[in-house]
Amino acid sequence: MTDPARVKNLQGLLKWSASQETEGSDGPVSLDPERKEFLSKVLASLEAGVIEQIQQIFQVVSLPGDNEADVSAKVEALEALSDLIEDIDNAGDFVKIGGVGICYAAIKSTHEEIQSAALTCLAAAAQNNPQVQHHLHKTDLLSRLNGILASSASVGLHARAVHALSCSIRGQPVLVQAWCDGEGPAVLNTRITSVGSPNARFMVKVSNMLASLPVDYPAIRGVLVRSGLLAAIQSFLSSEHADDAVWEHTTRAMLRAAQDTPDAVTVLKDASTVDLIRKWQASIEGRPPDDQEALVEAKRYASALLSLLSS
Predict the structure, then answer these.
(1) DSSP per residue over 67-95, as a string?
(2) Is the pLDDT of residue 44 over 60?
(3) Within a 10 A sphere around the Cβ of 288, how many other Cβ atoms?
(4) At 154, is the secondary structure helix, strand, or coil?
(5) Please, what sign has the CA dihedral across residues 49, 53, 55, 60?
(6) Considering the entire predicted model, what is its pTM?
(7) What is the pLDDT of residues 171-213, one digit of tens each?
(8) What is the Rg, in whole angstroms, of the alpha carbon atoms belonging to the chain?
(9) Tally of CA atoms within 13 A in the half-sphere of 227 that contains its CB
(10) How far is Cα of residue 254 from the mean position of the Cα atoms in its chain?
């Protein structure tokens, strides 16, 4: 028999979470029939420990406390949620149990640690999970991530936001197109080109995402040219912060963007990419054998891009 107290607690979680998924909502909203039906099923199919854990996360994250101990407790709760939904079978339940609303509330926190943990949860749930990806799009995750990229001063949060963005749209052409058609490319370009803004970790996340998206949505190649994103990631290669990981992922992204796209080739040629690659190749020639082995992929992408631009 289902415990009435557990039903009531979970109903409260779902109502509060649903209010957080709707920007500008001042209070709880009614549960839709799908969630009401799911409520009875989830209580019957999940172990009590799972339900109780999610309820505890809800209670901890929604508490008003703001001191060091409160922040630490909320971060630990969100990390527990992230561990729970790394299993793809739990990610769909995460959506209906109210995890998305919990995370949306957390990314509005004034504490970077809480925001970061919430973004990690959203990325973990969305990765390779179309059901979760489309739900996040429906509840306007893209605008929330754009807001973080546009207004936050934290480079660490910028990297987390790009990772969450990548996980939430990758593999779904409709969602990639939605990002392209919105403010996403312009916001990301502004963030990259802001003085003192990008660092190596952030640029690796950006380039890794941009390298993967043409596979799902080839039309993004033109978007990368028109938005200035292609030129922006290329310019970072001349930065003192462009380490080996940046070179590997950025040359891969530029190579993917330039394939079958004359305008992209023109942009990269005009930006003296050929000279930049040759200087980098010369700079790594004298490195020890162990370093050379670690550079295999970066050298391969750089050589392929050099060949494409020199033809």
Answers:
(1) SHHHHHHHHHHHHHHHHHHTSHHHHHHHH
(2) no
(3) 8
(4) coil
(5) positive
(6) 0.86
(7) 999 999 999 999 999 999 999 998 565 789 999 999 999 999 9
(8) 22
(9) 27
(10) 20
